[in-house]
Amino acid sequence: MAQNVSMIGINANELRWIRTLVQLLRHPDPSVPELTRQALLYMAEAAGRAAVPPAPSPSRTSADAMDSAG
After folding, report:
1. Which terminal residue of the chain, N or C, has fewer Cβ atoms less than 10 Å from its own Cβ?
2. pLDDT value of residue 55
3. pLDDT of residue 53
4. Whole-angstrom Cα distance, residue 44 to residue 59?
5. d(Cα 45, Cα 33) in Å, to the nearest integer?
6. From residue 40, how far is each of 37, 62, 64 by CA, in Å?
């Protein structure tokens, strides 16, 4: 009998994707787990880039702003 384990951050509707991912990582053909691993690394890197807002372009430095203010 399978036991359910709760994990913080995983919704019940995401379990299907987790199961698929585990199946791919355990696949007997060694190229499938390696490709899965590379895809996960790519997605994690892309998600990290998307989560960080781009820095504003420095049109004026803080020193310039101080000079013009006073």
Report:
1. N
2. 73
3. 72
4. 32
5. 18
6. 5, 40, 44
What are the distances in angstroms from CA 24 to CA 6, 18, 28, 41, 52? 21, 10, 9, 15, 29
Per-residue model confidence as pLDDT tens digits over 27-63: 999 999 999 999 999 988 988 887 777 677 777 655 5
- CA 46 distance to own-chain centroid: 6
| Start-to-end Cα distance in the chain | 75
Return the pLDDT at 33. Answer: 96
pTM of the model: 0.56
Residues 6+ apart with CB under 8 A from 69: none
CA dist 25 and 57 (Å) reads 42
Distance CA 64, CA 21 (A): 53
Domain boundaries, the chain: 1-51
